[in-house]
Specification:
Blueprint: E1 6-11, H1 16-26, E2 31-37, E3 42-44, E4 50-51, H2 54-66, E5 69-75, H3 81-90, E6 94-98, H4 107-112, E7 115-118, H5 121-130, E8 135-138, E9 163-168, H6 173-189, E10 194-198, E11 211-213, H7 222-229, E12 233-237, H8 247-252, E13 258-261, E14 276-280, H9 284-296
Parallel strand pairs: 1-2, 1-5, 5-6, 6-7, 7-8, 9-10, 9-12, 10-11, 12-13, 13-14
Antiparallel strand pairs: 2-3, 3-4
Helix pairs in contact: 2-3, 6-9
Length: 329
């Protein structure tokens, strides 16, 4: 029953949700380490300290190697020099899990990878030119094909209340605030009877009447934000370049109607779910228009913009994902 080897996951901070999905799918068959970048340096999941100097990072690297780690999976390509240096220091067999179109621009890392794990067929073609020797696998990422067995709760506002929208995102706060402000201005200009409750701090000065800033909320605080605002609709803001965002699974699991903006590919997660709409990379005017249309029609509109990913939940996790262990017996 002892795991044969350990797997290390090197990731951006924002990919924690995807890492949790992978971890659940492969433990306890392997021991599972997570290395994350921080503004000060990097952290390891089995250590309580921050490794913030070059010498500290060497210590972290030796710790990982001495723990028996045999392979690295970069979940999203590292966006910091610290993580790049850490991956290079470990010099272990490498997988790269592609979560964004930005990830395919890291040609140096992709060429080093033994396996590329991809959740989008179109990117497979681009990757075949960048890293022709890598073993590219088109798979459904853990959690992507899950189905929701419960009913979505749809309710109309009472006569004495406005339409409440809870905006949720894991993008940079300044980017999210700019998008929400743009939509809020359109709502104010057209005097639409709705408010947007933003689950983050306001960035800069805002005098927009239709926006309420709740302060920062993590994915774990989502239930609290819903309890504070009692929203009729959840608005999930995603990055147009993203292929998959595990936070959307948490949002969809709240059982409320959902609108997704940014990436149509991220919204595949909601395919087959009622009361779900994807607007893609829509303008502020288009978003406000759709919110008003949903309010006016008591959200009794057919789902729209949801693409099928065309894949069932695959056996890649945990079986094929760990097939490298056979070489280490």
């Amino acid at each position: 029953d002892t795991p044969l080897n350990q797997a290390a996951i090197s990731a951006k901070c924002s990919d924690d949700g995807q890492i949790r999905h992978i971890g659940r799918s492969i433990t306890p068959r392997v021991n599972f380490f997570v290395a994350r970048p921080t503004p000060e340096g990097l952290t390891l999941s089995d250590q309580s300290r921050i490794f913030d100097t070059a010498e500290d990072r060497r210590i972290a690297g030796f710790h990982v190697l001495e723990s028996g780690v045999k392979r690295i999976d970069c979940v999203g390509t590292p966006q910091s020099a610290t993580m790049e240096a850490f991956v290079e220091f470990l010099d272990l067999p490498l997988d790269v899990t592609i979560l964004s179109q930005r990830d395919i621009k890291r040609h140096d890392l992709l060429k080093r990878a033994q396996r590329l794990i991809v959740a989008d067929a179109e990117l497979m073609n681009a990757l075949s030119h960048i890293s022709p020797r890598a073993d590219a696998r088109l798979v459904s990422l853990p959690g992507e094909c899950a189905r929701f067995a419960f009913k979505v709760w749809k309710r109309r506002p009472r006569r004495d209340e406005g339409f409440r929208v809870l905006a949720v995102s894991d993008l940079a706060p300044d980017s999210v605030a700019a998008q929400i402000k743009s939509v809020g201005k359109v709502i104010d200009e057209n005097r639409l009877p709705m408010t947007i409750h933003a689950a983050q701090d306001c960035v800069g000065i805002s005098q927009i009447q239709s926006i309420r800033w709740l302060g920062p909320h993590s994915a774990d605080d989502l239930v609290r934000a819903i309890g504070e605002t009692d929203p009729h609709l959840l608005w999930f803001l995603s990055d147009p370049d993203d292929l998959f965002n595990p936070l959307l699974q948490e949002v969809a699991g709240m059982g409320l109607p959902v609108v997704v903006t940014g990436s149509a590919l991220v919204a595949r997660r909601l395919y087959g779910r009622p009361c779900s709409w994807s607007l893609g990379d829509a303008s502020a005017e288009e978003i406000a228009e759709q919110l008003e249309k949903l309010r006016r029609n008591d959200m009794d509109l057919p789902t729209a913009g949801l693409l099928s990913h065309g894949m069932r939940a695959s056996a890649f996790y945990p079986e094929e994902y760990l097939d490298w262990r056979a070489d280490d017996r």
